[in-house]
Amino acid sequence: MRVLVAQLSPIVGDVVANADLCIGAIRRAAETGATLAVCPELVLSGYPPRDLLERVDFVEACMREARRVAVATAGRHVVAVFGCPWTEGGLRNSAVVAYQGRIVAVRHKSLLPTYDVFDESRYFTPETDPRPVEVAGLRIGVTICEDIWNEPGLVRNPYVLDPVDRMKGCEVLLNLSASPFHAGKGELRAELLARQARQCGAPIVYCNQVGGNDELLFDGGSLVVDRNGAPLHQSAQFVSELALVDLAASPVSLRFPAFEPEVLEALVMGTRDYAKRTGFRSAVIGLSGGIDSALVAAIAVRALGPENVLGVGMPGPFSSPGSITDAQALAANLGMQMELVPITSVHTSFLGALGPLFAGRPPDVAEQNLQARARGTVLMALSNKFAHLLLTTGNKSEMAVGYCTLYGDMNGGLAVIGDVYKTDVYRLSRHANVAGIVIPESTLTKPPSAELAPDQKDEDSLPPYAVLDAILRRYVEAGANADSIVAAGFDRATVERVVRMVVGSEHKRWQAAPVLRVSSRAFGSGRRMPLAQRWS
Prior knowledge:
Elements: E1 2-7, H1 15-32, E2 36-38, H2 56-71, E3 79-87, E4 91-99, E5 102-108, E6 133-135, E7 138-144, E8 172-177, H3 185-200, E9 204-208, E10 210-213, E11 216-219, E12 223-225, E13 231-234, E14 241-246, H4 259-277, E15 283-286, H5 291-304, E16 309-313, H6 321-334, E17 337-340, H7 344-358, H8 365-386, E18 389-392, H9 396-401, E19 414-415, H10 422-432, H11 441-445, H12 465-477, H13 482-487, H14 492-504, H15 506-510
Parallel strand pairs: 1-2, 2-3, 7-8, 8-9, 15-16, 15-18, 16-17, 18-19
Antiparallel strand pairs: 1-14, 3-4, 4-5, 6-7, 9-12, 10-11, 12-13
Helix pairs in contact: 1-2, 4-5, 4-10, 5-6, 5-10, 7-8
């Protein structure tokens, strides 16, 4: 049996165009002699459609387009299986099975995830009696994403119902998926599929969505394994692909990229898709000469092209000469435009206007933040005037502890590296230079500084980033408490200080730009902490 694995990049809400992608896959399957054409989960609506699912007209449009897709199978010996929201005993997350011009079966998702970024029980009714489909002389097992994530030892909370167990006896098990990316997830998926294939006793075709929809990134990486779990096919990451796979083929070797190239590709795709899908053709970035803005600029240039990225240097009263020369060198290396807008006079005007109210009080963070807010105002003005998408340059370490200024450096429409710790920013930046110097060496080696006060260094206000990030990984991502982090060898005073900073900065993160998610625990819809609370 030959299967066309249609790793597609649907856009949420673009129902007609998404249906056209499926029709193109069906035609390609017919041309190549495939028996099956498999498309991702909720491909007609795009994933995640969120509260669009509460609009009756939206669901009806998806179902109408599903019937149009089915018509494309007429006269072709191809069984098409594709995802669509469906109304049957409630709203369902469904797989539509089409053959010879009509819909012959609809199967519904059984396991509805309600953790991390998922909230499917908010919208869908689960299937309680999953069963295979018999069509064109084939017995096909149909599952949808979470339905296979039920393997003890690999998942946190196994479900009572096991849809894969209900598919025993099928000739092939399909899994239509929209599985969000995080670094290193490919190896976990491969192990999961191998175990589930052996349990079911059938080959598995795992077809995953690709592309960026808001904060969520989908890497594709579709897989096909034989009944023993041996890999037969692995699709590329971060690109659409129509792959013809023979289920009788010999096993292949899997490829799992290192952290740096995988995350960089994810961020490039996420930036490109977010800009395109929200109607932006260009971006603007504040270039400080520091490592964070340099990495964001390098990503933006790859995503949008150098001619579509504007860098803005905004020297203030405490800016070092190197902050401008490093930013200019970066812009030259990337081939992007750079402009200078000095803010010293703006800062002086702010201080003059506020002087009577600030009188008698020593200078502190309020005066420092006026500089960040002046820069934020400049960047937002350029965004408004020229329809540029403003990309924020803050990293995950800064967002975690609030080392960022509301209505200043947090201004923007997309937080490109908001899920990348500072220590990883350096790793990604050095990798960006592998093919040739993009980020100046001086940017990589100088001590990080916000340059809001004389000779200011980040470590004047924060623990060393190596220490800070190690604590944050345990506290934010692993959910460890302060005592267990201290038991791992960290200084108690430092740990408790970091925890206080994380808890006290929640209000900033609520007001931050969407963060492209590349870890298993990002600041965004997958982390929902209350603001007014007293548990730390």
